[in-house]
Amino acid sequence: xxxxxxxxxxxxxxxxxxxxxxxxAKENNGLLDITVKYHADSIEASGLSFQDxxxxxxxxxxxxxxxxxxxxxxxxxxxxxxxxxxxxxxxxLIPVATKLLAKNPSLEISDLSVVTAEGPIKSxxxxxxxxxLYDTNNPMSLIGALNASxxxxxxxxxxxxxxxxxxxxxxVEQGLLIRDDTNLSFVVRKES
Length: 192
Hints:
Elements: E1 2-6, E2 12-17, E3 20-28, E4 31-45, E5 48-62, H1 64-79, H2 83-99, E6 106-116, E7 119-129, H3 141-145, E8 146-155, H4 156-160, H5 165-173, E9 178-180, E10 183-190
Antiparallel strand pairs: 1-2, 2-4, 3-4, 4-5, 5-6, 6-7, 7-8, 8-10, 9-10
């Protein structure tokens, strides 16, 4: 499948070639694990060209009953036109959404990658929330309950041709990026 987008003058804004999407859901110990995979053989956007683009996401340990409840609330929100009904529906949405945290759900990005003319850009990561540290009465406690990790690598010449060399040098100097010859990488970890 090829998807294209053009501006009012007929200039190409975006072209996705051989785009595919697959999704799978499995029950695991009474909870739902959902895997979503996107792939495009090629992408052209803003004068840049990419090959073999992938996004693989996993939403794990989701409470099926809470998802059904969220879906029902979302349907009510879409069907309501009265502002007072929408306000009530949105107020009901937050407590239901926080129920998802009771089973320690996680988001896993197992493959976020693309190949450029300068080389591959690859990353992966995961996010979990420790429900023992999250207080539903204090939404800001979500930050403290968050566990996250990510790592990635990319060819520096790709970003340098976009005029980002000074920014890259600053990030390397600050220790946010690691430069190994012409390759850049990062590792991030935040634990509660």
